[in-house]
Amino acid sequence: MNVYVYKNDEKSGPFSLEELQASLDEGAFSPIDSAWFEGCEEWTTVSHVPGILISEEKRRQHLVPPFEAYSGDKPFVFVSYSHADGELVFREIRRLHEAGYRIWYDEGIDPGQDWPEHIAKAVIDCDLFLMFTSPRSAASENCRNEVNLALNRKKKFLAIYLEHTELPPGLELRMGDLQAILKFRMPDATYRKKVYMGLEAMLGEGGRDLPEGDDPVAEAMKIEVVADYLMAPVEADLASEYLPKEEASSSKSAKTGMGISFVWALAAVCIALAVYFYTQQDRGKNNSAKQDSKPQPVEVALPLDAKSKQELEKEQLDREELESLREMVAKQKQDQEIQSQLNEAVDLQVYLESLKRAVELEAYQGAALLAAQKVLTHDYIFDNGQGELDRRLLFEGPGEVWNRVRSGKVGVYPENSQGEYEALSSIVSFSGIRDVWRYNLTEYTPVKVGNTFTGQAKYETKREHLRSIFSFGQIRALVADEKFDSEDKSSEKVQKLTQHGNFLIQGRRQVRQVTSTHWAGNIKGQVLEKPELTLESHFVQDQIEQYLDGENSRVRAPLLDLLDTLLVDQSVDVLFKAFIHDKLCKILLPRGDQWGVPFSPWLIEDHNRLQEMLRTPLKSTDWMNPEPFQEMKEDLAVFYRDLNTRSYSAEANVYVNFLRDISAATHAFAGHVDELNQPRFIDEDNPPSFLWCLVLEQSEVEFQQFSGSNGIPFSPLISLRGDLEDAYQKVLSELGEGAAEMEDLLPFPYPGQ
């Protein structure tokens, strides 16, 4: 296949695919340079030439925004386009930018800005609205909104058609009478002159900044416009070698391929034979009629050499006709054999080799040929030398964790857990929640009720419980002897009790003390009584600390088990439970694939709900000061009551085992897509449920799941060996009601029964 390239206003070529690929790899050409190849109806880019491979790095390099969007008070052009046309549009606006035109396009929006508002402002402020029109932009809701706003604001409007486009009725109504340039029908020089003429006329003086050096606008204006239609890049003396556009169009509409070719070939043979025998028969009848008719015509004798010449010419024509028929029959037989090999192939390699042979023997033409070539240039996708294809089928999925199953990096408990150990230790140690005690703060007030017979005062003590108070660690007490009063009238032994510690008061840690006086069974002042280690601290010491291996700085067991223990514990405060629940999930998430997080849809769902309820992040001490969180506590109580039967650990283990089961599956060749985009299975009676093939996605060939008609003609159909349905049913039986859907388990969409 010959390819022509248009770069820097010069056409070069023809190039073979190998030569073009080499020039692309060397940097002589770029993916966005204009290109035309045999069978191509219009100019495209190098990246769209069938058989040309573009690395992702090179593709990203050439798809970056070519310049910053204009920002200022001078006249500027607003560019509307579909991102699917990014290659072509970026190339065109780069030229306009280099010519001095001020261009605004949506790549100039800063992160965090209100996208619709920013675009609307740019449309309103622009001096010219320029739309690059294609079927993609015509179908884009964003582009249509931009067009409507521009026309409502009566903006100067210019449309550049990248290819033939049928506008939707609404868009056609508004754009039908507006100025447009049909780029796809023009040589590049003609197109550029028309664009610059349009921009200069609409923007007027001051519409651009004059570039330093040569002015591309002035140079383009010197060009004589000869024709306004697209010309194929072939020399005049070679033009006859290429199929005219009318014939190409009619060829497109016909059904191509082996089955159709066979019918037409057979018909041609029959017609030719019929004509041949009819001619012979008619010749015999004429001779007979000549002999029977009277009077007999006088036979004119030809010279011997002339008669011999006529006979020789006739014999030569007969031989050529017969040879042509033989060649036609042989070609038909050959094509039939090739099609039979394709249909009967039960091995992927055999199928691809048969398809390659069909292309080499010119069994296909037109669109069918291009489709076959696309498949063959992407045959590397089906390589399974190191298990690449198996991994591509099974382990490219949500969270990018599925490809780690075989390597053993996916599970519910990693080998190295030092980071998680340190994070969990800090919650326990630094927050102080492992040693929180609850005390009753009591007020004692003595009331004098009389005197004893010896004259001593007699008291009756009133006791009032003030509140519960939390201390970090047990309080310390100091006892000292003192006099009862200033007159030292008491003969009883009197003691002063001072209790002090680190308390939580009004949501803050504070060092406080309380004092009381004790004598003869009487008490005056405040006393902290009935110390009790909180249930929350019991949970920390009895449960959380059991998971911490201080000697080796690691977590002893799967943290999903600890989460399960927390959920079923009904003794701790729900604010404490929510705090620990949130902290544990955030410890797990950085390495979620190794702790089993992606394999527990329940865990992910529940944590998202919890974060919605935690309007502000909880502190480690909020459960000791619940007054500000009463409404939240009520919601959390209902939430955790519903989670009482959850088991994240069991769920994750079942799913991990399921994925390990399907990881043993491998691929199988199930058939191919025929030239009418229909599947042709090896086993037509038992088509597989899981199928992949090559599809064309926005001019790019990708390997995707087969949906019934999205495959490129001649693409192999790939299925999975292994009974996944049985494995799925095993999951359902182990998890019971409430298990996830198949789509949550597999790294690929599940078609169902």
Protein described:
With 753 residues, the chain is of the alpha+beta class. It has five domains: 3-62, Dna Ligase, domain 1 (2-Layer Sandwich); 65-221, Toll/interleukin-1 receptor homology (TIR) domain (Rossmann fold, 3-Layer(aba) Sandwich), CATH 3.40.50.10140; 258-293 and 301-344, no CATH class; 379-413 and 564-624 and 631-666 and 721-753, no CATH class; 433-537, no CATH class. It is 42% helix and 19% strand. It is built from 25 helices and 22 strands. The strands form five sheets. It has a six-stranded antiparallel beta sheet. The protein has a five-stranded parallel beta sheet with strand order 6-5-7-8-9, sandwiched between helices. β1 (3-7) and β2 form a beta hairpin. It is elongated, with a radius of gyration of 43 Å. The chain starts with a strand and ends in an 8-residue tail after the last helix.
Number of helices: 25
Mean pLDDT: 79
Biggest beta sheet summary: 6 strands, antiparallel
Distance between the first and last residues' Cα: 45 Å
Strand content: 15-25%
Strand order of the main beta sheet, please?
Answer: 11-10-15-14-13-12
Class per helix and strand makeup: alpha+beta
> What is the number of strand segments?
22
- Ranges where pLDDT stays below 50 over 5 or more residues in a row are 108-113, 226-304, 395-400
Helix content: 40-55%
Please sum up the structure shown:
The protein is of the alpha+beta class and 753 residues long.
Which terms summarize this structure?
Rossmann fold; alpha+beta; six-stranded antiparallel beta sheet; elongated; 25 helices; Dna Ligase, domain 1; 22 strands; 753 residues; five-stranded parallel beta sheet; single chain
